[in-house]
Amino acid sequence: MYMSKTNNQSFINHRVRYNGRKINIFDRINKIKSDLKELMPEVEEDRFLSMASHVRNFYYGNLHYGRRDKPENKKRKRELTPNEKILLDYFMKNSINPSTAYRWFVACRIPSDIKEKLAHGQVSFKKAFEIADNRKKSKMSNTGLLMIEEINNVVRSL
Question: Fewer CB under 10 Å: which end of the chain, C or N?
């Protein structure tokens, strides 16, 4: 059945399915983090992102030592740490794709105003990351320009 857009609403996926109903993506992330805290109390919350990255690469068979372009490195697969194995097991038991979970963890790192828009469905997941990336790049370029200006001033004064 075709659904038309009404009142200038867009059908943006800012909710995820959990137990048969859709909930806010950040509520789902908080639920996952609290479950992981119970499973692995010794691991800090900041480590979950890098662990999810390793699990994602392992899940797709890309977790290797060294550079990717060297054929001998393709033969040496890196094993998951015990905590990463627990994380992978948690994802599999709860039917969560490791790649999706990794993207959810990354979404927690975007600025709060963009995160709020994403939570309310005003921007899409992809657009939220684009906005955050553009802000970061413009901030870096402004900082770079200021540094170049200061260097020029120092050189002129010599």
Answer: N
